Amino acid sequence: MPRVSILLTCYNHLPYLQRAVDAILAQTYTDYEIVALDDGSKDGSREWLKEREAEGMLRCVFNQENLGTYATLNVGLQEARGEYIAILNDDDLWAPTKLERQVAMLDEHPKIGLVHTGGWFIGANDERLADPKPLGFSYPSTPTGDVLALLIYHNRIITSSALVRRTCFERCGPFEPSFFGSGDWQMWLRVAREFHVGHVPEDLTFYRVHDANASHQKEKINEDDARIREWICTWQSDFAARTQSEPDLYRAFAHNLACLGTERAWAGKPAEARRAYSASLKMAPTRWKTYLRWVATFLPKSVFRKLS
Q1: What percentage of the chain has pLDDT greater than the value 90?
Q2: Given this model, what pLDDT does residue 215 score?
Q3: What is the domain partition of the chain in residue ranges?
Q4: For 57, 58, 161, 204, which has the most beta carbons within 10 A of its beta carbon?
Q5: Model pTM score
Q6: What is the number of alpha carbons within 13 Å of residue 250 lying toward its C-beta?
């Protein structure tokens, strides 16, 4: 049995697909299998993958219809045989030592359930982009350890950079398939509740920026994020004892409520936004921006968006 199962997610990215497979084949750690998960490509990706499967390079799973990112990953989890699960989106790339560094960390630290890496954003020709925030955020990272509070603020783990113990999915469950583009964040939060997270501070994962990135579809991402923020609110009673002794976690929950208020205001629900802002201020009365946004909910939605 391979120690690592690489879930290669594929959907209409044939110009990048061969580069992704080449990046896998160049890994210095070689005890892996490649499970290619095609979610209904119509650009020749399926035919190319079938040829590679015939050569014994990888195993293919072809969805008969487009299931979406997270339902497709769940298919891959059922197919995977490895102790560790890696994900590589077919438009991203890895440095040759990526898996080697991550496997070593998981082997050495049994409390760590997920390891991710540093990296940078790349363009169509694999070039490093000069803009450090081409999608509105810097390439994310965490320290190694208990990072739940940090992940409540926002997602800090690039999916293609993650290597996850199979036991994480066995304990926490599969991806939630109803999300459009934030289901990875929700999964990492669930893992971080139960396990430590490791970070290899080397540039080993390269996230490709192009017109089809899910991050460009702001409305759908905002809907996902609002759902996740509402879901995080349901945790607060579970963490009551910890928040009394961990100010960082307490502040993270207050921040989450403020973010939920903003999501609701953007969605045209000012009364619900004010309730979330009020709950945040009850926890953290010195959040002055939250006071200002509470007041701004009485303005038209278009004005609120400009101010926030």
Answers
A1: 88
A2: 60
A3: 4-216, 219-307
A4: 161
A5: 0.95
A6: 13
